[in-house]
Amino acid sequence: MSRFKTVVPLMVYISPALRDEVKKFAKKLRMPVSQIAREGFVMRMEGLGNDYDSGFSNGLEQAKLLAKETKGAQMMFPSGKSFGELVCDDIDSFKHRQGVADAN
């Protein structure tokens, strides 16, 4: 069976700098760029990339904990929120903008 009967083309736009990095990476692994892309798609859809996301989320949670517990972060604003709470709100909004899953 011809390879083209088992696959379909898909165009993906990336920056020229990223293209160069991907090509070097593919050459180093002796693997086609399309194979790397396919594996990346599968990893994201199956949640296999969650080790990174989970670790990143845990790091953000630790930052929130430090922001809340730091003595200077206890200062209250007229809004009724402490400085630490405002920082945590910003961290949470960053997580949602970046599409990072909550660790909890």
What is the number of helices?
Answer: 4
Number of domains: 2
The percent of residues in helical segments reads 55-70%
Order of SSEs: HHHH
Strand content: under 5%
Q: Total strand count, please?
A: 0
Radius of gyration, taken over Cα atoms and rounded to an integer in Å: 21 Å
Largest sheet: none
Structural overview:
This protein has 104 residues and is mostly helical. It folds into 2 domains: 15-48, no CATH class; 50-98, no CATH class. It has 4 helices and no strands. The relative contact order is 0.09.
Features:
mainly alpha, 104 residues, 2 domains
Q: What layout of secondary structure does this protein have?
A:
Blueprint: H1 16-29, H2 33-46, H3 50-69, H4 83-98
Short précis:
With 104 residues, this protein is mainly α. The protein contains 4 helices and no strands.
